[in-house]
TrEMBL record:
Organism: Halobacillus karajensis
GO function term, MF aspect, one: pyridoxal phosphate binding
Family annotation (CDD domains): KBL_like (cd06454)
Reactions catalysed, as given in the entry: 6-carboxyhexanoyl-[ACP] + L-alanine + H(+) = (8S)-8-amino-7-oxononanoate + holo-[ACP] + CO2
Protein name according to UniProt: 8-amino-7-ketopelargonate synthase
PANTHER family named in the record: CLASS II AMINOTRANSFERASE/8-AMINO-7-OXONONANOATE SYNTHASE, LD36009P
Superkingdom: Bacteria
EC code(s) of this entry: 2.3.1.47
């Protein structure tokens, strides 16, 4: 069919530049080892931090919900698609996060879009870290608010943006809690202090911190003992929680407002019962099995120390998100391909996801990995690193 030649041209250019991406289908369940192209490899690229994608309690809860309530809801939340279990889960989540209320969106991505686009108008300003996630950037693009970008985790840069923002109705500072490509933690105590000094609101995206940081995985705010001082916590239910969805944990006012104005919430069908039941069971797992988070951090330390001892540069990572810096884009892809041959699935991340020349293999270990698997992965990194002259 004719009509898309201009798109094909762009794809052909990507092919020439080596940036064209093929999707890589898993032929097994997600786990510490997965099957790809018929080969069993160690998985180091998922966000399945706690291994919850296959947790028996969560699978049982999903099976039961499927059997009792069917596979879909048949409506958006605001018309006929709110099940009691949706609201029960939101109450449980709010309690877990130590907030007044919570609201679930279809994904973390649409949560950021829905929150930012609805609560900010032309009288407002949003002040955003330059390395915030794409969904925050897109959410900001959807608002009529003025926008200021501060240098990554640079508090002087944030303060000067705040100083220039005196005359707005609402000033909203927004930051990732854990940055997804470098694995560093936002300096939230300093951000909150500045926000309080300049009368601004704070929004934190805990996509990579939910289930990872704080007591029982309550996130960055709890990790820094800032409960009650951060206005909006958003996050995903799709990474450590192991299922699907996004949430906002905040005040009852914000929840009520988003029910009326959050466009992805208003105009997109609610989560299937199995998804909500599994998300709900995940909170119980976080409360009942804190050893999973301990194992995640123990594995993270083992793997990161191992990489550093070999001589790899893991940048500024402080969390399980551990980049192995390579530099050149083509070399990064080559590194990833060679790792696969050596039995490790670890994807290369290059421009435009990270700045040009900052290509890296982004690894994330999980609570499911055994030390033997991680040692095997370290051996593969050593072999390939030496072969490609990175070590
Ligand atoms: N925010 C951040 C910081 C993320 O890393 C991601 C996941 N890529 C999202 C939001 C989006 O979450 P989800 O995958 O649930 O849409």
């Amino acid at each position: 069919m004719k009509g898309f030649e201009y798109l094909q041209k762009e794809l052909d250019e990507m092919q020439e530049q080596g940036t064209f991406r093929h999707l890589i289908p898993l032929e097994s369940a997600q786990g510490s080892k997965v099957t790809i192209k018929g080969k069993e490899v160690i998985q180091l690229s998922s966000n399945n931090y706690l291994g919850l994608t296959s947790h028996p309690k969560m699978k049982d809860a999903a099976d039961k919900a499927n059997a009792d309530y069917g596979v879909g809801t048949g409506s958006v939340r605001t018309i006929a698609g709110t099940l009691k279990m949706h609201e029960d889960f939101e109450e449980k989540l709010a309690k877990f996060k130590h907030t007044e209320a919570a609201l679930v969106f279809q994904s973390g991505f649409t949560t950021n879009q829905g929150v930012l686009s609805s609560i900010l108008g032309k009288e407002d300003v949003v002040i955003s870290d330059e390395l915030n996630h794409a969904s925050i950037i897109d959410g900001i693009r959807l608002t009529k608010a003025d926008r200021k970008i501060y240098k990554h985790v640079d508090m002087e840069s944030l303060e000067s943006a705040l100083k220039e923002s005196e005359n707005y109705r609402t000033k909203l500072i927004v930051t990732d809690g854990v940055f997804s490509m470098d694995g560093n933690i936002a300096p939230l105590p300093e951000i909150v202090e500045l926000a309080e000094r300049y009368n601004a609101l704070v929004m934190v995206d805990d996509a990579h911190a939910s289930g990872v940081l704080g007591d029982n995985g309550r996130g960055t705010v709890n990790h820094f003992n800032l409960d009650g001082r951060v206005h909006i916590q958003v996050g995903t239910l799709s990474k450590a929680i192991g299922v699907l969805g996004g949430y906002v944990a905040s005040t009852k006012t914000l929840r009520d407002y988003l029910i009326h104005k959050g466009r992805p919430f208003l105009f997109s069908t609610s989560h299937p019962p199995a998804v909500t039941a599994a998300n709900d069971a995940a909170i119980d797992v976080l409360l009942e099995e804190p050893e999973l988070i301990e194992k995640l951090w123990d594995n993270t330390k083992f793997f990161k120390d191992g990489l550093n001892a070999l001589g790899f540069d893991t940048g500024i990572s402080e969390t399980p998100v551990t980049p192995v810096m390579v530099g050149d884009d083509a070399l990064t892809h080559k590194f990833s391909d060679e790792l696969f041959e050596a039995g490790v699935f670890a994807q290369g991340i290059v421009f435009p996801t990270v700045p040009r020349g900052k290509g890296r293999i982004r690894t994330i270990v999980t609570a499911e990995h055994s030390k033997e698997e991680l040692q095997e992965a370290l051996n593969a990194f050593e072999k390939v690193g030496k072969k490609l002259g990175i070590l």
